[in-house]
Design brief:
The chain is an alpha/beta fold. The chain has 9 helices and 6 strands. A 6-stranded parallel sheet has the order 3-2-1-4-5-6. Helix 9 links the parallel strand 4 and strand 5. It starts with a strand and ends in a 10-residue tail after the last strand.
Length: 217
């Protein structure tokens, strides 16, 4: 069983909330609560626009242009600031760890994630997911990003399994499910918010909770 990382095993939206609080604390002071809510909404817009890109400089520079801070991080320092702090904004529910370890007793497990190696590895270490997964394939290292089928093939080779023997669990219908199914891996769409599928991609299965994965053992 192969897993996506952000928004599947880890709650990225919650981490973005924490990252915003760090930016607020470092660069602003005495901001009214109502204004903070406006700022957070805009912060998430810029983050979502550049989600998946390794360089987050544009996210904060655009945000600072909209909401001029008391202390503005120099553009040359933003990437280092993001890489240092964002991975520490992630936390994981022990229940998720327990589910993965339960699955691991019955089948091989691995992570396939898009992103910058230093950030993705830090997230995995800081949430103790490294204790669950020996095989982690990160797009920057692999040279291919989801939905490119070659990144899935790299993971299959590391696991020593055929595509038909594997399941992939991810939240992105196109990058995760479309990508894995182009390799003949069955895609399980993790859809906790019960979003409507407006793509032409039909997942092998759809779940709203990781607990549901236990029925596929």
């Amino acid at each position: 069983m192969l897993f996506d990382l952000d928004d599947t095993l880890l709650n990225r939206d919650r981490a973005v909330d924490k990252m915003f609080c760090l930016v607020l604390e470092k660069c602003y002071e005495d901001v009214e609560h109502s204004v903070q809510q406006q700022m957070l909404k805009k912060f998430k817009v810029y983050d979502k626009r550049d989600y998946g890109y390794s360089d987050k400089t544009k996210v904060l520079e655009s945000f600072f242009d909209d909401f001029p801070p008391k202390y503005r991080l120099p553009g040359s320092n933003i990437q280092e600031f993001w890489n240092k702090h964002f991975p520490h904004c992630f936390s994981i529910d022990q229940h998720t760890i327990d589910i993965v370890n339960n699955i691991k007793r019955h089948m091989k497990v691995a992570i396939i994630t898009n992103g910058l190696t230093v950030r993705q590895k830090a997230k995995i270490m800081n949430t103790n997911l490294n204790s669950c997964f020996e095989i982690v394939v990160i797009s920057e290292e692999a040279g291919f990003s989801k939905p490119d089928k070659r990144i899935f093939e790299i993971a299959l080779n590391k696991l020593g399994v055929q595509p038909e023997e594997a399941l992939f669990v991810g939240d992105d219908i196109e990058k995760d499910i479309g990508g894995c199914q182009s390799t003949n891996i069955k895609g399980i769409w993790f859809n906790p918010y019960m979003l409507e599928n407006d793509a032409e991609i039909i997942p092998y299965a759809e779940i709203d909770s990781l607990d549901r994965l236990l029925s596929y053992i």
